[in-house]
């Protein structure tokens, strides 16, 4: 009897533990939870903590409350210039109303990602359709993204129970069939611009070179004029000094000039000088007085 009673108590304890473990649940700070009763939403206002549910009656579904990413595939879009573009975008979102989110997606987060991607592409297509390539690439890109985020957020909160944090365009490309022709036009335009720059540079170079040559001639002429003036003044002054010095002793002047002539005449050993013995050239060698 005692053994049967002990077994019964142990069974009751195990059943109690099983009931508690199957009915207790914890909601984390990074989660949002929804409680279902036979598939119907009965509670969504869970804060982080420990809760209990009725086994076999209630079902608990948990979802990630952190910011998530919708990374859609590149989509072909037409702009206001009737040119096709391949637009690659992404969006950041988080669950705003978990009850509405569960009803809209039936608890499948993949459905939420798919629906958001469709709405993002539709709004991008509408906005790109009224703008040219320059506006969507650089001119109005920030304004465009802010407007799409605002409009999409209003719809997403109402329809899907999610909050759109941000929408961004990662990349805008031209379709392969038109990229080559566009690149050829761009290349031709750049080559034309390069030729224009080179022509202007050559013209400026010739103008600078001509100015430098003219300045060179002017500077050289002015320097030559000043040099000739200085040389003339120096020669005149030297002649005056020589004249004053030699006028005091003409004989010494003639003797100095004769020595200079000897020095210049016999500068090289191979020089040969033929003259008459009684020539006046050697008079100071014959007689120191020059007589």
What does this protein structure show overall?
With 291 residues, the chain is α+β, with helices and mostly antiparallel strands. The protein has 3 domains: 49 residues; 113 residues, Tetrahydropterin Synthase, Chain A; 46 residues, no CATH class. 58% of the residues lie in helices and 20% in strands. The protein contains 8 helices and 9 strands. A hairpin with a 2-residue loop joins strand 2 and strand 3. Helix 3 crosses helix 5 and helix 6 crosses helix 7. The longest helix has 73 residues. The radius of gyration is 54 Å and the shape is rod-shaped. The termini are far apart. The mean pLDDT is 79.
CATH topology of the largest domain: Tetrahydropterin Synthase, Chain A
Largest sheet: 4 strands, antiparallel
Helix count from the secondary structure assignment: 8
Mean pLDDT: 79
The number of strands is: 9
Fraction in beta strands: 15-25%
CATH superfamily of the largest domain: Band 7 domain
Q: How does CATH name the architecture of the largest domain?
A: 2-Layer Sandwich
Task: Just give the CATH class of the largest domain.
Answer: Alpha Beta
| Shape, principal axes of CA atoms | rod-shaped
* Unreliable runs: none
Domain module tally: 3
Give the terminus-to-terminus CA distance. 177 Å
Structural class computed from helices and strand pairing: alpha+beta
Compressed to H and E, one letter per element, the order equals HEEEEEEEEHHHHEHHH
- Radius of gyration, Cα only, in angstroms? 54 Å
Q: Report the helical percentage.
A: 55-70%
């Amino acid at each position: 009897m005692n053994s049967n009673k002990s077994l019964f108590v142990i069974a009751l304890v195990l059943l109690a533990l099983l009931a508690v473990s199957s009915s207790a649940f914890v909601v984390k700070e990074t989660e949002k939870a929804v409680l279902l009763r036979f598939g119907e939403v009965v509670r969504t206002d869970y804060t982080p903590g420990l809760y209990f549910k009725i086994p076999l009656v209630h079902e608990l579904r948990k979802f990630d409350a952190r910011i998530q990413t919708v990374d859609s595939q590149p989509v072909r879009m037409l702009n206001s210039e009737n040119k096709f573009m391949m637009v690659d975008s992404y969006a950041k979102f988080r669950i705003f109303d978990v009850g509405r989110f569960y009803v809209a997606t039936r608890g499948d987060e993949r459905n939420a990602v798919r629906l958001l991607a469709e709405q993002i592409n539709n709004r991008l297509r509408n906005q790109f359709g009224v703008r040219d390539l320059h506006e969507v690439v650089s001119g109005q890109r920030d304004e465009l993204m802010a407007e799409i985020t605002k409009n999409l957020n209003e719809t997403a909160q109402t329809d899907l129970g999610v909050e759109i944090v941000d929408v961004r365009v990662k990349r805008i490309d031209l379709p392969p069939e038109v990229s080559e022709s566009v690149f050829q036009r761009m290349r031709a335009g750049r080559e034309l611009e390069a030729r224009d720059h080179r022509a202007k540079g050559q013209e400026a170079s010739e103008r600078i070179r001509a100015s430098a040559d003219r300045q060179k001639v002017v500077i050289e002429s002015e320097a030559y004029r000043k040099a000739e003036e200085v040389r003339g003044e120096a020669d005149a002054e030297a002649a005056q000094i020589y004249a004053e010095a030699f006028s005091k002793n003409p004989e010494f002047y003639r003797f100095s000039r004769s020595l200079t002539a000897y020095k210049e005449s016999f500068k090289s050993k191979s020089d040969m000088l033929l003259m008459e013995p009684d020539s006046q050239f050697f008079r100071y060698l014959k007689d120191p007085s020059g007589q």
